[in-house]
Amino acid sequence: MSGKQNSAVGEQQSSSSGKRKKTPKPETRLAMVRRARRINRELAEVYPYAHPELDFENAFQLLIATVLSAQTTDLRVNQTTPALFAKYPTPEDLAAAQPEEVEELIRPTGFFRAKTKSIMGLSAAIRDTFGGEVPGRLEDLVTLPGVGRKTAFVVLGNAFGVPGITVDTHFMRLARRWKWTDQDDPVKIEAEIATIFPKSEWTMLSHRVIFHGRRVCHSRRPACGACPITHLCPAYGEGETDPEKARKLLKYEMGGRPGQRLKPPPDYPGDPAPAVGAIE
Ligand code: SF4
């Protein structure tokens, strides 16, 4: 953890009166871009194992899991999908299912009627329009029921290796705290962030930012006192600055607890999530 605080964020010192006085100075675009890229590099050191937190073995599973993750935790989805994928392993199987049976299986993820409609509808569209294979192009993915740009980018980035920026609630919050943008529309945020980072970084940048948002820089009480990038953050102090108290706010492997995936990648330093009965 760094002990430095906020020294990189637009401040100037003057000593004309003999006293050292701080004068706020707006950060230039160039300085912001450099700071943003440095945040990305430092997060890469903190979370070298950053990854999507949904369990999946192929593009179809990732697509279904991402649709189910709306309004719930990845952990809840990961605890739900093994039974769903065991019963309906392909788009053809899921498209031909009894809706009531699918509803029962995905009930723990919430909004289960609407989600059943989406996942059965998108399975039928994959079967009928795309020859049974999840399409690997944004313009095709967003034609599927229940699939917006955010879901499409998750699938493109993690199942097809196509760079994409995932602007979820964590990404939006952190991008604004870090003054990468002052937009609040996800599509505009995505467009602005795309001008700050090279395309090759987009997918991993998204994972790192989301990891940091879930573990340290929470919505209500960010753990500023235990944050590794305080010296790059204009919002330092918005949360708990006492190191001892801040450490207690850390989540998942950062807080010494299990992660969200039942089957995390081999380099994940924390414990896997339990199969049932856990709450985030
Ligand atoms: S936890 Fe605090 S210091 Fe760290 S990124 Fe969030 S607001 Fe900034």
Rg is: 21 Å
- Let me know the number of strands: 2
pLDDT averaged residue by residue: 92
Largest sheet: 2 strands, antiparallel
Level-2 CATH architecture of the largest domain:
Orthogonal Bundle
Uncertain residue segments:
1-8, 10-17
- Percentage of residues in DSSP E strands: under 5%
- Portion of residues in helices? 40-55%
| CATH 4th-level superfamily of the largest domain | Helix-hairpin-Helix base-excision DNA repair enzymes (C-terminal)
Side-by-side strand order of the widest sheet: 1-2
Question: What count of helical segments does DSSP give?
Answer: 12
Could you name the CATH topology of the largest domain?
Answer: Endonuclease Iii, domain 2
Give the number of domains.
2
Classification by helices and strands:
mainly alpha
Output the CATH class name of the largest domain. Answer: Mainly Alpha
**What's the SSE pattern?**
EEHHHHHHHHHHHH
Reconstruct the topology from this structure.
Blueprint lengths: L10 E4 L6 E4 L4 H18 L12 H10 L5 H14 L3 H5 L3 H8 L5 H18 L8 H4 L7 H11 L9 H9 L8 H11 L5 H14 L27 H7 L31
Antiparallel strand pairs: 1-2
Bound molecules: iron/sulfur cluster.
Describe the structure.
The structure is a single chain. Helix content is 46%, strand content 3%. It has a two-stranded antiparallel ribbon with strand order 1-2. The chain is mostly helical. The chain binds iron/sulfur cluster (SF4). Residues 177, 216-217, 222-224, 227, 229-230, 233, 235-236, 238-239 line the site of iron/sulfur cluster (SF4).
